[in-house]
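[Target chain]
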Amino acid sequence: MLIDTHAHLDFPEFAGDLDAILQRAKEAGVGRIVTIGTTLKSSRIAIAFAEQYPEIYAVVGIHPNLVTEEKQDFLPELQELVKHPKVVAIGETGLDYYHLPSKRRQKEVSETAFGAASTESIESEIRDEAEKAAQAVAFAQHLELAAATGKGVVIHQRDSWADTMNILRTYSADVRAVMHCFNGSLAQAREAVELGHFVSFTGIVTFTGAGDVRQAAASVPIDRIMVETDAPYLAPAPYRGKRCEPAFVRETAAVIANIRGLTSESFAANTTNNAERFFGFS
């Protein structure tokens, strides 16, 4: 059996298609699917799916890109959601510097608009720092909740590895975490594992230019590795460019098993055991 440890079943790409998706996952040998909250509303939907389908479990939290859009006092409701028996972790949370205001603004500057563009640049930098600060506060709140409840934490990081690890390191004695959708270097994977955490791989590992990710997937200790789809994103080869779905975790697992010199059955058994230890499915 395989477990898709990270999917977004509440996203509109799956509207009206969930029963068929779950059937295809079952046929592919995927026995459990963890659907991830990104807002309070998304987290409530994840729980509703988990209540409706025995193979689905929920993770609840606020995605770093959505922290400034969520109500500021989200923590009390999140604390209540975590109590649900099919909530198996907290997240996804973390830091994301890829979508900061300065990255979103128009970067072309003409000579005639230099003054205005310069002012805009300064304002964007100020907004960047404000958003980074908000993400860091929310990240710490999620980690503190995890420490208090004994739940694992699903971590998202993009262009923010050093800051993410600096915050996580403070809580690592009391919290177990998984670095979801890992796309970094072997050194970074080792850093996470040495702190006692897990590393989870998506379809990126099947991409032609993902040599560093494959090296990490080949070297992470077998008891610290998990697999996921991050559906509807990052469909593995041969489905790249299409909507990703939980059944496709089989392709990712097959590639990693091959580069590690393991049978698909052995690799599936190991990653399933890891997911069961991390999430504590009941």
About this structure: The mean pLDDT is 94. The chain has one domain: 2-100+131-279.
